[in-house]
Amino acid sequence: QFDLEQADLSKDVRLQVIDLTGSVVIDREIGVVLGSNRLEISIGKLEQGMYLIRLTNGKTIHQGRFLKARP
Q1: Which of the residues 3, 13, 32, 44 could staple to 37 if both were Cys, CB 3.0 to 4.6 A apart?
Q2: Element holding 3 (H helix, E strand)
Q3: By C-alpha distance, which of 64, 67, 50, 49 is closest to 15?
Q4: In sequence order, which residues have a C-beta less than 8 Å from that of residue 21 and are 6 or more positions away?
Q5: What's the pLDDT score for residue 61?
């Protein structure tokens, strides 16, 4: 899970998790509200490694990275 606190993302956003080869491994539409949100995604089936997480609402893109370690 992660916290998202962005004033410019509201309503529906697209959440994508992308591996280092550029493949989209998770692609979901998520409803958020203006302000602070707590989002949960299941990464249990992902292989170990570094991933890019991308949130877009059609005009704004926010990106970050996370490391999936051993289960």
Answers
A1: 32
A2: strand 2-6
A3: 64
A4: none
A5: 86
* pTM for this predicted structure: 0.80
- Residue whose token pair is 């539409």: 29
Which amino acid, 57? N
CB atoms within 10 A of CB 32: 19
Please give the angle made by the CA atoms of 42, 43 and 49, to the nearest 5 degrees.
165
The neighbouring-strand residues paired with 6 are: 35
Burial of residue 9, with CB atoms counted within 10 A of its CB: 0-12 exposed, 13-18 middle, 19 or more buried: buried
Instruction: Indicate the residue type of 29.
Output: E
How is residue 45 annotated by DSSP? T
d(CA 53, CA 16): 6
Distance CA 50, CA 22 (A): 11
Name the amino acid, one letter, at 56.
Answer: T
